[in-house]
Amino acid sequence: MKVLITGTARGIGRAAALKYLNEGCDVVGIDRQPGTIDHPAYTHYVADVADAGTLPDIDPAPEIIFINAGVQNSGADIDVNLRGAINVTEKYAFQPRIRAVLFNASASARSGFEFPEYVASKAGVVGYMKNVAVRLAEYGAVANAVSPGGVLTESNRPVTDDPELWAQIMAATPLKKWLTEDELAEWIWFLTAVNRSASGVDVLVDNGELALNSTFVWPKN
Predict the structure, then answer these.
(1) Can you tell me the distance from the alpha carbon of 199 to that of 88, in angstroms, rounded to the nearest whole number?
(2) For the residues of 124-151, what is the DSSP string, one character each?
(3) Tens digit of pLDDT for each residue in 175-205?
(4) Residue 98 parent element (H or E)
(5) Which domains does the chain have, with CATH numbers?
């Protein structure tokens, strides 16, 4: 299969690219930064997803698209995270070879926590995903979002490297851990390469942080 991934220079996008490559796929990566993957089945393009005019033509078209490129609290969150997702999807997704489109959203899209423009951009991604799912159905293709909670990435080191902040986070996380990039890559693989029946779904993967923190209040006996 041919896979297109945005934001492959590091982090979740890079881990996902390596997963697909290990499964025997051909992978095309797009990032504003130079490529960091050396593999005969990997092709890298330097482009800005927020600028549709920089996106390359890809032939043959991808069968799987993972929309991952994103920024946080940058002043450009909506341009990159939401407009960039729309630019990439509209250019590459609606064609006969397509099997699956997956958007990297965020638990913040549900909770409303974190930075205002980041939350708005990710909530917009989830809404746009549902629109894409409706339009892709005629191709027999699925579109979904994965919404991670905490992930052990370089960009999250301001909290993972701070013992006091990390303790606060773990106190609110029922499973007492965060996702690794490799674990999230397994979810990405399943939702795109294995799944053929779930579409229009936002899959929350947050170690129970939203679902298992009870707000039930009742007097003690």
Answers:
(1) 19
(2) HHHHHHHHHHHHHGGGT-EEEEEEES-B
(3) 999 999 999 999 999 999 999 999 999 999 9
(4) none
(5) 2-151+180-205 (3.40.50.720)
With 0.90 as the threshold, say if the pTM is over it: yes
How many C-beta neighbours within 10 Å does residue 183 have? 16
57-72 burial code (b ≥16 CB/10 A, e <16):
eeeebbbbbbbbbbbb
Q: Which element (helix H / strand E) includes 220?
A: none
DSSP 8-class letter at 107: T
In angstroms, the Cα distances linking 204 to 107, 120, 162, 210 are 6, 17, 25, 9
> Which helix (H) or strand (E) segment is 204 a member of?
strand 202-205
What is residue 203's three-state secondary structure? strand
